[in-house]
Specification:
With about 130 residues, this protein is mostly helical. About 45% of the residues lie in helices and about 10% in strands. It is built from four helices and three strands, in the order H-E-E-E-H-H-H. A hairpin with a 2-residue loop joins strand 2 and strand 3. The longest helix is centred in the last third of the chain and has 19 residues.
Length: about 130
C-alpha cells in the first residue's frame, strides 16, 4: 500500500503566490501559499514567525493524506480532517525541529480546540 501511495504522489510541490484568499491551500501534489506564509529569511525572521511558517507547511502537507487521499464524505465531517492536520502540525514540527519541543504544546493547543468544538455542539467537556 505504501508503495502504491508513493507511486501516486511521487513529489509534493510548494508554490508561493503574491495574493491568495487563504494562508495556504493543499491540492494533490501541490500546496499553494501566500508569500508571507512560506518565504522567510532565517537571519532576520523571528523565532515565532519561523515556527508559524513551519506549522502551516506541515499542516498543508498533512492534508495530502487527511483531506486529499482520505476525504470526508460530506462537509459536516470536515472538522475531522482539520483536526488530524492540526494535531500532526505539532508531531511533524517536533520531528523536524526536536529542540523546539513542540510535543509539550499539543495538549494545550488541542485542548483549546476541543473545548471550542464542544461549545459549538452545546456539550460541556472538562479537560
Amino acid at each position: 500500500m505504501t508503495q502504491l501511495l508513493f507511486e501516486l504522489l511521487c513529489s509534493v510541490d510548494l508554490l508561493a503566490v503574491p495574493k491568495h484568499p487563504y494562508a495556504a491551500m493543499e491540492n494533490w501534489g501541490l500546496s499553494v501559499f501566500v508569500e508571507q506564509k512560506i518565504l522567510l529569511d532565517p537571519d532576520v525572521s523571528s523565532f515565532s514567525y519561523q515556527m508559524e511558517l513551519t506549522m502551516v507547511v506541515v499542516h498543508e502537507i498533512c492534508h495530502q493524506w487527511f483531506g486529499d487521499l482520505v476525504t470526508p464524505v460530506w462537509w459536516e465531517d470536515v472538522w475531522l480532517k482539520e483536526g488530524f492536520a492540526h494535531y500532526f502540525e505539532y508531531i511533524g514540527t517536533d520531528f523536524l525541529f526536536p529542540k523546539w519541543n513542540m510535543s509539550c504544546c499539543i495538549a494545550t493547543a488541542t485542548g483549546d480546540y476541543a473545548i471550542i468544538f464542544c461549545c459549538f455542539n452545546e456539550t460541556l467537556v472538562y479537560m
